[in-house]
Fold these 4 entries.
Entry 1:
Amino acid sequence: MRIVLVGPPGAGKGTQAAYLAKNLSIPHISTGDLFRANISQGTPLGKQAKAYMDAGNLVPDEVTIAMAQDRMAQPDAENGFLLDGFPRNVSQAEALDRALADDGVHLDAVLDLEVPEDEVVKRIAGRRICRKNSAHVFHESYSPPKEPGVCDACGGELYQRDDDSEATVRTRLEVYHTQTEPIIDHYKAQGLVVTISALGKVTEVTERAMAALERAGTAQQK
């Protein structure tokens, strides 16, 4: 299956992408991984992206699109892929449509993870990271430490990242609503969008997503 995963920040896209890709035996292609791989390998696209980033500028759509096209052309993506973080806007979605059409293939589904805005804020703003080891992550509501402000694993101080403040989260949500959310209407016009609730346990959301994708795949075959 060829799938695009969309949803607001805090919807659990990265977690669900990993589980879904494993269950469907297709590669998980994320924008972050594309950038890191191209920059670390010193590819021509990576050098272009790094030049923009070093100058404090956004990487142009055409560079991001070219990276995605190159990755989708790899042998492990021949039978499908799951795109996470791309396309990020309508122009990227239209470019993806053209690229797939040129290859004689098409998307099977666009999975929209739906989460109420207040829940997104609660999920992200409640995160606390250990200063000694950033791999130790807690949450004030969902997985609180035994002692407030202290890491259970190493005793390090727990803190809230600037990116996780409520004000920053709401700004990120506004960017999502204005830039990324319109791609849902773009794909609805093609009959590709399947929307599921991303509330509940991770396994419950994965089961919900797999069932929705199975229905979408069956519908595409008719």
Entry 2:
Amino acid sequence: MNILFLHGLESPLTIDKKNILEKYGNVFAPDLNYKSNPNMIQFLYDEYQNQSIDVIIGSSMGGFAGFYLSKLLKLPALLFNPALPYHATEQNIPNTEIVHQHLIQFVLGLQDETIKAEDNLSYILNFVPRANDIRIHLLKDLAHRIPITVFESEVNLFFKK
């Protein structure tokens, strides 16, 4: 299995989290500069469309990019506090009117002050087609940063689907 991990703004994948993901397959974790590339989603699509990626995992801005990339590549996705309703950098979104049947699992922290869970929920309810297989995990004590224990638990749940 090939896993594409998309980090948030200036927060690359840690060794501990990479080790968790490597239990499930090969991990691709590109170093992304969202601020300097307003076409990051298209760039990622062009880069990975022929690389046999099986799953996309993203956090914050990487969750934003991962959401749209999962639609373009028709892949399941695990998204931690994705910046769907707003994002810190300008990003062009390619035509993603695509609806796929793969799982999209959202992990939203109710203590997140950076990306409010209620804003993400509103976005999901209004803009994610009901044809998608969607799971939403609301974690009452989770803030924006994802502790290793939460990361491991959610990754395990995702892969057990």
Entry 3:
Amino acid sequence: MATTATTSVEERKRLVRRLVGRSRGFAEEYGLQVTNNPASLFQVLCLSILLRRSPDVRRAVEPVLALRSQGWGSPARMARSQPEARAGLLRDHGRRGDADRLADTLGDLAVALVERYQGDLRRLRAGARYAPARERTMLRELPGVDAEVVELFLREVQALWSETPPVADRDALIAARKLGLGRTAADLAVLAGGGESEKLAWLVGALARIEVENTYDEIAR
């Protein structure tokens, strides 16, 4: 569909205020709290892996919520679960074609986090000495995590991991270009009032939702 790019600085700022005012980030809009504790960070990483594999956001979110409801919302508990049980739950929540492979990936991820970081991604961050490039490298060393998963994860936690902003994933940048808000994460950071502002995370999350849900017409209204 065609979109009308926002042109003037004031128009861009007004649109940013609208987007930030209606969003608290991508994951939280779908029922996952983003807080700096081990279980929350693990769930966001699992969501990022599923989003990487599915263009349908509901098919990514529902299995993560189901895994949490089953009591497997932390690395230690996920690591103790059985692959067949994980696969069955994933199939029940829409992941039929890749349930077995995904169940193995999430199990391997949980085990790796327990063995390397005592189940706490904050230890990975500390081990990287809070250097964003090193954090990205260490995240990519985890099972199921590639460069795109890393960007999806950091998109969500950048308000908490203050060294990482500005981060904007592919979907957010597509929406930003279509709406005339810029072409880079740095462009969005300027509009949000700075890279360390949590408004940046909210703005990026809102833009990503607009792209994946194709709600440009709603924004135009």
Entry 4:
Amino acid sequence: MSATFASPDDDTIPLHIIAADDMDAWRAEQSEDTLAWIDANGFVGRIGQTLLIPGPGGRPVMAIAGFGTGEKRARGRFHLAAAAARLPKATYRIVSGLPDDRAEREALGWLLSAYKFDHYIQAGEEGAGLVTPEGIDANRITAIAAGEALTRGLINTPSCDMGPAELEDAARDLAARHGATVSVVHGDDLLSENFPLIHTVGRASDRAPRLIDMRWGDAGPAITLVGKGVCFDTGGLNLKPGASMGLMKKDMGGAANVLGLAHMIMATALNVRLRVLIPAVENAVSGNAFRPGDILPSRKGLSVEINNTDAEGRLVLADALTFAQEEDPDLIISMATLTGAARVAVGPDLAPFFCDDEGFARALETAAVQTDDPVWRMPFHTPYESMIEPGIADLDNAPKGGFAGSITAALFLRRFVSTSTYAHFDVYGWNPADAPARPKGGTGQATRALLDLIRDKSSA
């Protein structure tokens, strides 16, 4: 579920946002009764603190929410969301204290904090509602929140209900909502249509593999988003241990991210020619599963030696990236829950990305700061190319030695893009613990930053 801004009514409660640094100045303007109530409840303006101020009849006449100190704000994001989660159910209207330069981000955080994955349980009570703050683009913020909710919902859905067919349904539903078109290559047709790696990875499952191709827009820069759609990853014959398999419903997080980003792009009507490609498979175990030591053909004609069947994401992406490059778009972006090495390098909160285009990288890093959507640039370190060249095939899908796993995976993918500007995101797609506006579970990463960057490209 996603949230929208509330409509004001007679019961709307004025909300004052108070930074701890500004507490004395705000207190100087309040009545003795209000100050006594604040002191009795220990409100000092910490991030996440909230308090309703009662009037003579006991009904609240205002609410206050802490905004912390500058030092504390610098260590986190979505500070108003921390208060939104604690305010009683009501409709609130911000009347003071929201910095102009943070208004859109904090309003978005409020909407993001309303997300709950309640598909399998009795839905709980809705939380606090917010009247659209002055000076923000409500339609844009709502579209971003809805895109993030789409991403979260897809990742959070267990694989029993989110296989390749259901992922296709999600893409078709999104396309129908925005007037986009979808074509899909299914099952053994992948072989006749020359997608051998996608077919090989998905053939062991009784849930047919497929390549989903969505298109929208007929003017502006051509932008192709490619998302890894491994709906469950057992590891194949290189079977994962049980502890590592527990979160593998999120291995289609790249696909969920690009679908969420696609919604944001279409809902805000950016002037782009958008294409979304999702190789959707389940990496299962059966008698016809691909094996360690196999040498497989790819759509591009490069041969790939399989040294680990658990490095399957880069295989399905390779065919999809080749297909994307055949139209020579202005920009190709791949997003994938690809390597544990990326998570070890930067943790779950940062989205590592690889790109050779300095202008793109700088613009993305700027957008990431402006949108509270952190990214970290990683190197396409060309000297490591030899690590993905096994000698008996063109490429190795899983170099031995354990060094630079995220980099070698990115270098592998780069072999399938030749002329377009290319950026690869090795996302984690999961919040391991609750945080303001980011509940534990599936999450979008780098999509808001990419939306800002694409918006700028579309209007240039």
